[in-house]
Amino acid sequence: MQIWICNHIFLQRDLGKLAFWIFSWTDLPCIRFLLMLHLPALLLAVSPGIFGQIQPSFAGGSKVGRFGVAQAISNSVSPSPVGQATNSSGTATVFVTNHGGSVISNVEITPIFYNASVNYQSDLVSFYNFLPTSSYMSVFAQYSTSSQTIGTGRYVTSYTETRATKSLLNDTADIQPYLRALVQSGTLSPNANSYYPLHTAPGITIKQTGVGTSCVDFCGYHGAVYIADLSASTSWLNYAVIPDHGGPCQYVCGTGNVLQNLCSVASHELSEAITDPQLRTWYNAATNEIGDICNSIQGSLVDSHGYKWTVQKNWSNSDKACVLSSNAKPTTTSAVSTPSPSPTILTYYQGPVLANVEVTTIFWGPSSNQARIEQYYEFITNSGWMDIMSEYSAKGKIIGRGTWKASLVRNSTGSTFDDVKDIQPYLSHILWLANLRDDVCLSERDRYF
Fold first, then answer.
1. How far is 361 from 381, CA to CA, in rounded Å?
2. Exposed e or buried b per residue across 258-280, where buried means at least 16 C-beta atoms within 10 angstroms of its C-beta
3. What is the pLDDT tens value at each position of the chain, 449 positions in all?
4. For the whole prediction, is pTM greater than 0.85?
5. d(CA 215, CA 205)
6. What is the spatial distance between Cα 29 and Cα 21, in angstroms, rounded to a whole number?
7. What is the CA 322 to chain-centroid distance, rounded?
8. Three-state SS string across 370-381, please?
9. Helices and strands counted in the chain (H then E)
10. Which of 120, 149, 138, 60 is nearest to 266 (CA)?
11. Is 33 exposed, middle or buried (0-12, 13-18, 19+ CB in 10 A)?
């Protein structure tokens, strides 16, 4: 029994490429097929034939794959101590190498408290005031690049979210759009040195697709959101997400008390955000970033008021150990015990992209599921899922969110049809009839059918 018929047709026109999707749906399982097939297809349609895909490679020991540059990139602190690659005496020979990305030269920290119930806010403000000016920063000088020297940083201010907050946050669907919205509204004004650790209140669970759940699969992570379409001063917003360390995190994210473990994880993410902000700079393909190598190996630093802060040690290539501070000098190269593969990226071949996709669904015959399919496209084109594609923007074309426009229904009673004999003549016919307004199709606006 025939359940669905689906075709993708790409017609080359003078000023762009139109992609036409034709659907004939007669049963509910087609919805599942739609979700399975058209999510990746929509991504390809946004950049049709422009980006050459290379098989992605993954960093050993990481729960997150590396794709070179990504809009949604992150690395996580494992709930269980790692530290197996090295010890404090430096008996192992693990090195991180520079893979050609950028670093944060002089970090400027603005913690975000995701509602007023976040625990230890005043302590975290004091911690972030102390850490970027302390000897802890001396480890990072050796991870400078040919164009950037890592030095000390500073605490800027904090931001507390006062609006209603969610109890379940997905990194891609919730956190990244939230951060972009703060930039768009002018609440945040990031530059290349900015770093925004987001701390959540008790009772809030964080999900990261492909990684897992906070306090079960990770204790924190860092990443970067592409914001070149929103900011004139930087292309990336560097952030971290750190859940409350009471409750389910209390006994799995360190050996100290709640605040000590919270500061330890916060220092871990700060270290890696500085040396590997977009996950393409300093790391080892087998053991990951400088904090991961020394995961949960804690130490303490004393501030000018005599308060002892718990921090996590970091891997030092120069000292060949997990250390709290270092006398290492800036360097742009590093020895390696085994070759590390380069990050895998997609390559731009100078073609056009669709900046703000506009979807018109065409149904080849009546469908009982038309309303649900239309709701799906209306949602997905304006969801956080679309933000992933902003990294594939081209000169003069910043890929943003799109819209679902409308539907057309082809009055057909046949059970089978031919691509060349039926679909393409139909598309040509409705273009001539101006049902799909050829003047709009040939304008600077991007249309996707």
1. 12
2. bbbbbbbbbbbbbbbbbbbbbbb
3. 332 333 333 333 333 333 334 444 444 443 333 444 444 444 434 443 333 322 222 222 233 322 222 334 456 665 643 333 334 444 456 799 999 999 999 999 999 999 999 999 999 999 999 999 999 999 999 999 999 999 999 999 999 999 999 999 999 999 999 999 999 999 999 999 999 999 999 999 999 888 899 999 999 999 999 999 999 999 999 999 999 999 989 889 988 999 999 999 999 999 999 999 999 999 998 889 999 999 999 999 999 999 999 999 999 999 999 999 998 777 645 434 334 444 456 777 777 888 888 888 888 777 778 888 888 888 888 887 887 887 788 777 788 888 888 888 877 767 777 777 777 887 777 776 655 444 444 333 343 34
4. no
5. 8
6. 18
7. 28
8. HHHHHHHHHHHC
9. 8, 23
10. 120
11. middle
The dihedral sign for the CA sequence 104, 282, 299, 208: positive
Measured between alpha carbons, how far is 232 from 247 in angstroms, rounded to an integer?
41
Cα separation, 113 vs 242, whole angstroms: 10
What phi and psi values does residue 329 have, to the nearest 5 degrees?
Answer: -90, 160
Q: Judge contact between 393 and 354, C-beta under 8 A.
A: no
Cα gap 279→77, rounded to integer Å = 14
Please name the residues in contact with 178: beta carbons below 8 A apart, sequence gap of 6 or more.
none
Nearest to 235 by CA among 183, 178, 170, 159: 183
Local structure of 424: helix, strand or coil? helix
Helix (H, G, I), strand (E, B) or coil at 132: helix
Q: Contact, 313 vs 297, CB < 8 A?
A: yes
Amino acid at 3: I
Q: Which of 359, 142, 374 is nearest to 271 (CA)?
A: 142
Beta pairing class for 220-226 and 236-242: antiparallel
Query: Under 8 Å CB-to-CB from 433, ≥6 apart: which residues?
Result: none
Name the token pair of 120. 């230890």
The residue length of the chain stands at 449
Reduced to 3 states (helix: H, G, I; strand: E, B; else coil), residue 204 is: coil
Please spell the DSSP secondary structure of 66-123, one letter per residue. Answer: B-SS-SSEEEEE-SS---TT--TT--S----EE-S----SS-EE--EEESTT-TTHHH
Which tokens is 124 given?
């975290």
Residue type, 18: L
Amino acid 164 reads A
Angle CA 443–357–182, to nearest 5: 120
Pairing of strands 108-109, 154-155: parallel
What single DSSP character describes residue 266? H
